[in-house]
Amino acid sequence: ICSINSEKERTLAMIKPDGLLGNYTDDIKKIIIGSGFNIVRELTVQLDEENVTLFYAEHSAKGFFPNLIRYMTSGPVLAMVLEKRNAISDWRALIGPTDAKQAKISHPNSIRAMCGSSSERNCVHGSDSQQSAAREISFFFGDIPPETLKHDEL
Ligand code: RTP
Ligand code: MG
């Protein structure tokens, strides 16, 4: 029924290199599923400098950008399309604040508190708006049809 589907929203989640290397993938996926998200697509990929520059274009003039490129190319990432009602804001709430050190104090149950270690190495990404989500999903996955497809049915 169309009205049920149209209430759902999609966001782009990513487990960053420190999350994958630290073996947090299974724990993070348990939190994702337990929080009511459907994992519509997933892809493990090694990003290069060009990819990161495009993905994080909004930060290209920031002082931390060279470090961000080094961090994000230091190993593979796992990109996922998550779907549920209010997926964008609910995923941002689950991951917690950007600075993982701060997260350990202010949001101790957040994902970044669990597996991040600093303001840079914060183990996960989440889209910050509907516009970002659409751009970031197509960055990794191109156009996805509106009906839900579980990754293991592809
Ligand atoms: P993300 O886009 O990865 O979900 O993170 P965010 O919205 O919470 O934070 P954002 O401001 O978009 O920053 C993107 C990523 O850049 C790194 N960063 N390093 N050294 C620093 O001060 C610094 N600030 C940001 C982090 O990896 C951050 O997630
Ligand atoms: Mg951001």
TrEMBL record:
Ranges annotated as spanning the membrane: none
Catalytic activity: a ribonucleoside 5'-diphosphate + ATP = a ribonucleoside 5'-triphosphate + ADP; a 2'-deoxyribonucleoside 5'-diphosphate + ATP = a 2'-deoxyribonucleoside 5'-triphosphate + ADP
Domain Nucleoside diphosphate kinase-like stretches: 8-146
GO terms assigned for molecular function: ATP binding; nucleoside diphosphate kinase activity
SUPFAM superfamilies per the UniProt record, alphabetical: Nucleoside diphosphate kinase, NDK
Binding site for ATP: 16, 64, 92, 98, 112, 122
Pfam families, per database record: NDK (PF00334)
GO-annotated biological processes: CTP biosynthetic process; GTP biosynthetic process; UTP biosynthetic process
InterPro entries from the UniProt entry: NDK-like_dom, NDK-like_dom_sf, Nucleoside_diP_kinase
Enzyme active site: 125 (pros-phosphohistidine intermediate)
Residue ranges the record marks as coiled coil: none
Name of the protein this chain belongs to: Nucleoside diphosphate kinase-like domain-containing protein
Species in which this protein is naturally found: Dioscorea zingiberensis
Lineage: Eukaryota, Viridiplantae, Streptophyta, Embryophyta, Tracheophyta
